[in-house]
Every structure is written in structure tokens, then in C-alpha cells.
Specification:
Blueprint (H helix, E strand, L loop, with lengths): L24 H16 L4 E3 L9 E4 L11 E3 L2 E2 L2 H4 L2 E21 L2 E19 L5 E7 H14 L10 H14 L2
Antiparallel strand pairs: 1-2, 2-5, 3-4, 3-7, 5-6, 6-7
Bound molecules: nickel (II) ion.
């Protein structure tokens, strides 16, 4: 089922989402709905609060561009990108590493605004999958960035919060219009 995407100004986007303690059938179906909604909106990621759910669950899919990462390991073993995508994950814990890089980001909840965001280039993410299994995912490139962007959503943080002061000032008017 395709869900409605919440937009900038909706208070759910500012909430620290709740940890998932039990993986019910309803939550598994919700994971499928997240995938379907992300695909229909042509996004590379979507988090539960973006469809009005206060839960630590999100999805990413960067398989449209196999060159966007240089490595991907699951529990220490090399994995092909398309094997892991789309990746629905629950209760993520991130370790960030690598040099900070500035790359242009956008967000399905912030229509019409893109801007360069500086983030660490690599992540080691401990994630729970929809089948309840816990895995450690290590990667870089666009996937590392998408995971960080989605985990930010689960903490009520948006990419526009991470911009330079000058850039924040320059998009202030656009953001104000979005939140009316
Ligand atoms: Ni977003």
C-alpha cells in the first residue's frame, strides 16, 4: 500500500522515534509499504516518521547506481549491492568513520529544496532486518549517506539542520513557505 508522505512542518518529523521491541506481522507489512511508497515517490530512502509513524524503521535503496559505493560488507563478508537492496532496517546503531564529504541531498518531506550536506563518508551500522535477524553493514558512498540521512529522521533531525549557517539563511524563506 502506498502511504502519504508527511511534509516539512509536521511535528512527527521532529520526534525521536520509539524503538521497536516486537516484530509483528503488521510491522512487517508496514516495512513492505515503506518500500512501495519510496519506489512510487522515486526516492532512495524513506523513514517511518515520513509516513506518520513514530517507529525506528526505515528503508534505503541505491541499487539504481551500482557504482555509488566502493565496498559493502554484511557481517564482515563482501555482498553485492543488489542482494541487499531494498534494505528495510529497524533500531539502527551507527558508527561513523572516514573523511567528511559534502554531497547534495534532498528529502521527500522537504519539497523543492536540495543542498550540500557534510557527512562522514563511511558507516558501520548495526541493524535489525524484517526477519528479526541483527546484521552489521559496512559501506561508503551514497549508501552510507542514505543510511545516515534516514537514521537522522528517526531522531527528528532533517538534512536542512546540518547545513552551514549561510546556506540555512539562504533557504529560510523557502522553508517557511513549506511549513505553512
Ligand atoms: Ni529525508
Amino acid at each position: 500500500m502506498i502511504l502519504e508522505i508527511t511534509q516539512y512542518g509536521n511535528p512527527i518529523l521532529r520526534r525521536k522515534c520509539r524503538k521497536i521491541t516486537e516484530l509483528t506481522e503488521e510491522l512487517r507489512q508496514f516495512g513492505e509499504d515503506l518500500i512501495e511508497t519510496m519506489i512510487s515517490a522515486q526516492g532512495v530512502g524513506l523513514a517511518a516518521p515520513q509516513v506518520d509513524r513514530d517507529l525506528r524503521m526505515a528503508v534505503v535503496d541505491v541499487s539504481h547506481d551500482p557504482e555509488c559505493i566502493t565496498y559493502l560488507r554484511v557481517d564482515g563478508e563482501e555482498v553485492a549491492l543488489e542482494e541487499l537492496m531494498p534494505l528495510v532496517f529497524i533500531n539502527p546503531v551507527l558508527e561513523l568513520c572516514g573523511e567528511k564529504e559534502a554531497v547534495t541531498e534532498g528529502c521527500l518531506s522537504i519539497d523543492g529544496i536540495t543542498a550540500e550536506v557534510r557527512r562522514p563518508s563511511e558507516v558501520k551500522a548495526t541493524l535489525q532486518l524484517l526477519d528479526g535477524q541483527t546484521v552489521v553493514v559496512e559501506t561508503d558512498g551514497l549508501l552510507a549517506r542514505a543510511i545516515q540521512h534516514e537514521v537522522d529522521h528517526l531522531n527528528g533531525v532533517l538534512f536542512v539542520d546540518r547545513l552551514s549557517t549561510a546556506k540555512k539563511v539562504s533557504i529560510r524563506g523557502k522553508l517557511r513557505k513549506l511549513s505553512i
